Predict the 3D structure of the following.
Amino acid sequence: MGWAAAKNLPTDCWLRAPQRTNGSILILGQGGSAFWQQYKESASPPTDDPLDRFSLNVTDNLLASVFSCERAALFPAPDCELNLMRLLAAVGWQRPSPLGLGINARFGLWSAVRAVWWLDRAPVLPKHPAIPAPDLCATCESQACVDSCPAGALASGQGPDLGRCADHRFSEGSACAANCLARRACPVAPEHQYGEQQMAHHYRLDGSLMAQFRGTKGA
């Protein structure tokens, strides 16, 4: 969990002119697989995005029990106005990695934002200074993620080649259809890796969205 005053966020955290410049931005995330286990044990009804709906419900109930203030969900939302990668970098949570995912000093590549809320006031929480997250990828000697990518889609110091990645994922018999060998090869915090079921959920959903973008049928 982390928060920042909306007016103090760098302008590149916003995808468009912010509608709310007062109040606070509260970020709630997960590290490792504990949140997934809670989701699987819930009676979440089937929807287009059941995990997103579960995330909103859980965090909404949490905020209602802790804060007495107006609030609005900014993420997950189909029209999210925030660049999440830049937001997490701004609050010192993550740094970019060659995979295009953020890397966290404690959880490695195995953390994610589950919800972002706007509150009409500052929450009564400790406010830590936004110390930049360490650039773990720049100091990584093994570069195991780059070497383990079967598509050759990764390079140190730059973002992934999504075309190469997609072509390999959609190829017949691809081991990357519901997994990511490069992500699993990262030496940072392997104890927090997602299980096979959680990986399959995220990567099949991601693959479906990527296929729609490319105008093809995904796995």
